[in-house]
Design goal:
about 150 residues; mainly beta; 2 helices; 12 strands; globular
Length: about 150
């Protein structure tokens, strides 16, 4: 896999900023936080929102649409309604430049490449009902074989 020169390390991003790039056809967000660069998948695993339009808060990125949260360092889903983690990519800073290397880690790429959530998706519909009614308590989602696919406490 080829590395990609994303720009000058001193002028590419200010601390707390994010910018979207494409690495080998995949949307990737480059973020600068605490003077370090991080790269992660550009689409929220809930509904595909553009994460570069989200908010950086400490070591996490918050989705602009439904406020799912992901670890900036690992891509781990930290708060619903995210369905899965987002991928992370290798970033290197050398010779005054920032390089993105499309080596994805910590993620199931088959899930990430799924870009459409069906309109009749019960998972997504149930979150809307829960938040409209201001539900508080424990919740579990089950598939058709009655296997738990997610649990949450609100």
């Amino acid at each position: 896999m080829a590395e990609h020169n994303l720009g000058s390390a001193s002028t590419l991003l200010d601390d707390g900023e994010m910018k979207r790039f494409e690495l080998e056809g995949k949307p990737v967000v480059l973020a600068r936080q605490g003077g370090a660069y991080f790269a992660f998948g550009g689409k929220c695993s809930h509904y595909g929102a553009p994460l570069e339009k989200g908010l950086l808060k400490g070591d996490m990125v918050i989705c602009p649409w439904h406020h799912a949260c992901f670890s900036l360092r690992t891509g781990q889903s930290l708060r619903p309604p995210a369905l899965h983690d987002v991928p992370c990519y290798t970033v290197e800073e050398r010779d005054g430049k920032v390089f993105g290397i499309p080596i994805m880690w910590g993620y199931d790429t088959a899930i990430y490449n799924s870009s459409v959530v069906p309109e009749n998706d019960p998972y997504t519909q149930s979150w809307g009902l829960i938040f409209e009614d201001k539900y508080a308590g424990r919740i579990g989602w089950f598939d058709t074989a009655h296997q738990m696919i997610m649990a949450a406490a609100l």
